[in-house]
Design a protein that fits this description.
With 326 residues, this protein is mainly alpha-helical. It is 79% helix and 1% strand.
């Protein structure tokens, strides 16, 4: 009975995922086809990689409401460079530089200046998005997309696997090693758990906060570049759709494993992606997808909050028992 209680979140998630698969498999004949699974995993790569970056920020106890705006700026920069005739690799690397800069600014403002993360990220993100609109004019960029080779970022395959899926595997394995198998990961979690204690433990807190925001900005920007390569054109608003699914994926993972983890975020992204894929096959309007993702996010936050409150109460009770005994 105790084991069931301990693993309740994992069991509930597994049953929910199974139910979702059965429902979509019943209502759509295409859902369980190989072709659809390849498409679904491509889409999973978009949500999962963006959410992976956000996992680092949440692990240090902060929030980021700007990464989707940064992704718009970086992806449009890449598209503009492709239009000028830059090689795809150069366009991608140069396009990621603004993401590094914006993530660094976020990290300094929040980690060094200790400004509120919500205000900083919303403010900077809005400013960056406005700047991207000014220099791009909000128009599509098609030039050189077909002949430059940039679309191979989405279309190419390696050993039969789409390139975005390869990126997903490499990035998640690297993040797993960093967060769960290295001293750096322990430091990320230490900062998120108790920043003051981390400072007294000689952990360079400011550097890790900056690193988390830079990782988040870069991964979301790269994700949007892959998305734009799939669409075959530069589109300013493409990155805006990353915000809700990324947050939902992270909080689904937290509701399962009680803290932000690489594997939890992947499972959350998997659930969100199969729901989006199923709704697309059923021709459900986009606003209904947003509604469902919003509900998933709210319930995940509620579950995480209840578990956190329960932990706090048990800690208080234990302290009371110890004090009474002494």
């Amino acid at each position: 009975m105790n084991k069931i209680k301990e693993n309740f979140s994992i069991i509930a998630f597994s049953l929910l995922t199974l139910l979702v698969l059965i429902i979509f498999g019943t209502f759509s004949e295409q859902f369980f086809t190989v072709g659809n699974f390849l498409k679904a995993f491509k889409h999973l790569s978009i949500t999962a990689i963006s959410a992976l970056g956000l996992t680092f920020v949440v692990s240090i106890g902060h929030n980021d409401m700007s990464f989707h705006y940064f992704s718009c700026f970086s992806a449009m920069t890449m598209s503009w460079l492709i239009g000028l005739g830059f090689p795809p690799l150069a366009a991608i690397l140069i396009g990621l530089l603004p993401a590094v800069l914006f993530g660094f600014i976020n990290g300094v403002a929040i980690g060094t200046l200790e400004l509120p993360d919500m205000i900083v990220t919303i403010g900077l993100g809005s400013a960056v998005y406005g700047l991207a609109y000014i220099y791009s004019g909000g128009s599509y960029i098609y030039r050189n997309f077909q002949k430059s080779g940039i679309m191979e970022l989405n279309n190419a395959t390696v050993a039969g696997l789409p390139l975005p899926v390869i990126f997903l595997i490499i990035l998640y394995f690297s993040a797993w090693l960093l967060l769960h198998r290295s001293v750096h990961g322990r430091r990320f979690y230490a900062i998120g758990s108790n920043k003051t204690a981390a400072l007294f433990s000689a952990i360079p807190v400011k550097k890790y906060i900056i690193a988390a925001f830079v990782i988040c900005a870069v991964l979301s920007s790269f994700t949007n570049m892959v998305q734009i390569a799939a669409q075959g054109k530069g589109y300013l608003k493409g990155g805006l759709m990353l915000l809700m699914p990324s947050w939902a994926a992270v909080f689904v993972g937290i509701s399962i494993f009680k803290k932000p983890t690489v594997y939890g975020t992947f499972l959350g992204a998997f659930l969100i992606s199969i729901m989006q894929n199923g709704f697309t096959l059923m021709a459900v309007p986009f606003y209904f997808m947003d509604l469902v993702i919003g509900i998933v996010l709210i319930f995940s936050i509620i579950i995480s909050g209840l578990e956190f409150t329960g932990k706090k109460k048990s800690q208080v009770l234990k302290k009371g028992e110890i004090n009474a005994a002494s």
